[in-house]
Amino acid sequence: MNDHDLTDVVVPRGDYFGVEGSLGFATQSIRAGSFRSDQREHSEAIYLTSSFVYDSAAQAQAVFAGDEEGNVYSRYTNPSVRMLEERMAILEGGELACATSSGMAAILGACMGLLKSGDHVICSRSVFGTTFTIFSKYLDKFGVKTTFVDLVDYQQWRDAIRPETKLLFLETPSNPMSEVADIELLAEIAHSHDAFLMVDNCFCTPALQKPLALGADLVVHSATKYIDGQGRCMGGIVVGRDALVNEVHLWQRAAGATMSAFNAWIFYKGLETLSIRMDAHCRNAMELALWLDQHLAVEKVHYSGLQSHPGHELAKKQQKAFGGVLSFTVKGEREAAWQVIDSVEIMSRTANLGDTRTTITHPATTTHCRLSDEDKMKSGITENLVRVAVGLEDIEDLKADLEKGLRRLL
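User: That's the sequence. What structure does it adopt?
Assistant: Structure tokens below.
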């Protein structure tokens, strides 16, 4: 086997349950990508092994050469991980997926596999703080330059294009301001200059939004969030065309940013409830946003489900619903925001999201704390901003939990 060609590896599928794209999303999220071993298990098995054995030296040679189906080494061929990759590729409408050790490993892996020194990236300012750091600090060390633009100022995207521009990167809805970008338009801008578009679909998941169907070339996820759904495991996913994702697989194979078989099992069991969970997250978030929007202690609510949100109509067009994450500014500064956060008794004070449990955090001092004051200001990360990732608890309990702190600001 050529050590530089992952496509030579033929992964066994066992009794494989391929699911046609014409079936419903919930059916695909439960059935797609599964296979049974000769033990005939109903729930998918976990393949907790580092390596695989062969009947003979000749068979090992054939598997390593790609002439016979088989697994080589769990760093890059593991049946549990492959089942998750198959399922996520089908749910996102992509040709191939690559599972990684975290969401940041997915973003870095896509960049390392597809970019080279001298390339140029255009990235939205409205991204997760560590994503900003990857592009502004670490890729820069290797000669990949990044221009940051306002997410919904499409002229800035056009003006930032250079002959060496290779990648446009964004997340929509954005974290934590819930800005909504026109994926189709940004795909047109990228493709007209021979660049590709990568979309972080973490906040929506394929249950609510399909960036590939809107023209994106790659989708990335922190599977740690809604794909798991209960805040248990770390993982990431890259989905897209074969030619692009194969390059990510090659980087992962060399660098070792591997998802464990156990985590993969957690994620594809989590996918079985993704559809109904996202419906419930969206309902709760919508009701909480409407309540906060009327609260006298709240200055502004950032949630695309509100008709007053500038991205409301676009979100209706390219999303099934509006997601489970919102943010709001309170009357006052940091002390007021912290007072609200410190007053909660049900919500979890943590920066993670996508959990059945509602989480609350102060973006300026947590998720986006490493941004400069100037970059925070440009991204709308003010000292009085609070982010809530709405869980699945009773909505009246969540309102009452926030009310304890909000009423102290009046």
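Confidence is low (pLDDT under 50) at residues 1-17.
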